[in-house]
Specification:
Length: 315
Amino acid sequence: MVAPRMLPAVLTVLLWAVSATCSSRTARHLGGPRANRWRLVIAAAVLAVWVHGWIGMPTGGAVPWLLLSGAIGLGLGDLAMFAAYERIGARLTVLMTQCLAVPVAGLLEWVWLGHGMQPAEIGWCAVICAATAVALIPGCHLPAGGGRTIGYTCGILSAVGLGISGVISRRAFTLEDAHLTGFEGGVAAAYLRNLGGLGCAVAALLLVPVAARIGGSVTRMWHRSQAVQHPEWRAGWPWLLGSALVGPTLGVVCYQWALTGHLAGPVQAILATLPVVVLPMAWWSEGDRPSPLAVGAGLVAVAAAVCLALRIGCA
């Protein structure tokens, strides 16, 4: 059956869609860097109880790879993602991150691990990326002001971080001593990745102010990243809690679960439909009504994802 095999990837899309909505609200109340740090703290705490209380801490050669995966994906990648949110908007950031991560993951996995996708799978990946782009670009409104070049750059870096981190996780799962399979393996892997991401976020918190003293442009970028100087904790903490639980906690668990059984390229292609799933949520939470063209292209992207899922599931 296809559904059980693809269930982790589908759950990841749904959870990350909710997380995107919660994260957007959290960033408004607390500021992007602060929101990202605290959601990783909450996620690491929840997963620590989960792992040490019921599953057990994984050991072996997979551990450093998963820590590195988290540092690149949840650490550097998410820092770049939140920076892009502020400069080019959430919808275009999600588009760039999810779609560009597909070829990054597929190419790296082919060059490094030797697991190339079949021509038909590459074709479905291209359809998903193209349709998602058509679905979002017509309705995307860039924020006023400068910094768009930095925003585009950060969007690309976020995509590269997501794609690379997925392949590194796959590398960890190929090790004989990994013992990371199924749902429990996804929980343990998510815990290690959160630790790596949290360590990277804390390091950035300590190092960026030091670097900011070097030049005025860096200082201005740092101050802009701390847009909310007086965080509204009373209004922001429910959204922060939701973002942490459905994003770096359950969302990453399902993402790692999906990677235990499939190549990173096709899994990332399924996740490329995330911007389309976000559309109705953005309409409900922010009044951002999608155009008919966006709806039609979104349906094409979802249909292509289903076809890719059927091909993977029947392989």
